[in-house]
Amino acid sequence: MIGALLSWLTDPAHWAGSDGVPHRVAEHLGYSVLALLLAAVIAVPLGLFIGHTGRGTFLIAGLANALRALPTLGLLILAVLALISRLPGELGFLVPSIAVLVVLAVPPILSGSYAGVRSVPPEARDAAFGMGMTGREVLVKVEMPCALPLLFSGLRSAMLQIVSTATVAAYVGLGGLGRLLIDGLAVRDYPQMLAGALLVAVLAVLVELLLAGLQRLVVPRGLIAAARRGERRTRDVGGEDVQDQLEDHLVRAR
C-alpha cells in the first residue's frame, strides 16, 4: 500500500488540471478561510461582549457545547435539502457547506474570546476605570489586547477543525481534498483515498504552524507567557497611582 501511495503521489497527472492536487488544495483552503472569517465575525464580538459585560455567560457553556454536539454530515444533508430549492446552481450546495463549517468553528472562537477577556487581571481593569476610561475604551485598549493569546488559541483550534472537516463538502458535489476520498471510494481506488487523507492531515499541520507563527508576530511574548501561566496578580493597589498600575500591566505585555 505504501508503494501504491508513493506511486500515486509522484504521478504528474495527479498534480495538474482542475482535478489536480494543487487545485483541490486551493478549493479546500478557500472553503476553510471563508468559514473561519464568517465564524470570527459572529463569535469574536459576541465573546468579547459576554466577557466584558458578564451577560449571557450561559451561552458559553450551553450554546457552545450544543453546537459541538451537532453531527456535521447530518447537519450538512439537512441544510442542503432545505436550501437547494431556494438557491440557484452551486450555491445550493456551497452555502450549506460553509454554514456547517461555521457552526463547527463558532464554539472554540467564542470560548477563546470570552476567556481572554475574563482573564484580564481585575486591577488592570480597575486602573483603567480609575483613569476615567469608558467601558468601551477599557474593552478596546485594555481587555482586547490582553485577550489576544486566548483569542488566537480559539482561532487556531477552529481552523484546525475546519480544515479537517471541510472534506464533507465533496459529499454534496463540491471540490476540495474531499474529492479524492469520495471519488476514490466510488471506484475503490484506495491509494487515492489514502493520499487524500494524508494531504488533509499535512494541510492541517501546515495551517496550524502558519497560524502559530502569525500569533508569535502579532501577540506580545509577555501576554503569551502570562496566558500560559494563568497568572493572577493579587497585590493591593490602593495606595499606588492608577496610571502607573495600568502602564505597568501594559508594559509587561510587550
TrEMBL record:
Keywords: Membrane, Transmembrane, Transmembrane helix, Transport. GO terms for biological process: glycine betaine transport; transmembrane transport. GO terms for cellular component: plasma membrane. It is a multi-pass membrane protein. InterPro entries: ABC_transp_perm/SBD, MetI-like, MetI-like_sf. It comes from the Bacteria. It is found in: Cell membrane; Membrane. It holds the Pfam family BPD_transp_1. The chain crosses the membrane at residues 28-51, 58-85, 91-110, 158-182, 194-214. Residues 25-211 form the ABC transmembrane type-1 domain. PANTHER family: GLYCINE BETAINE/L-PROLINE TRANSPORT SYSTEM PERMEASE PROTEIN PROW, POSSIBLE OSMOPROTECTANT (GLYCINE BETAINE_CARNITINE_CHOLINE_L-PROLINE) TRANSPORT INTEGRAL MEMBRANE PROTEIN ABC TRANSPORTER PROZ. Belongs to the binding-protein-dependent transport system permease family. This is Osmoprotectant transport system permease protein. It comes from Thermasporomyces composti.
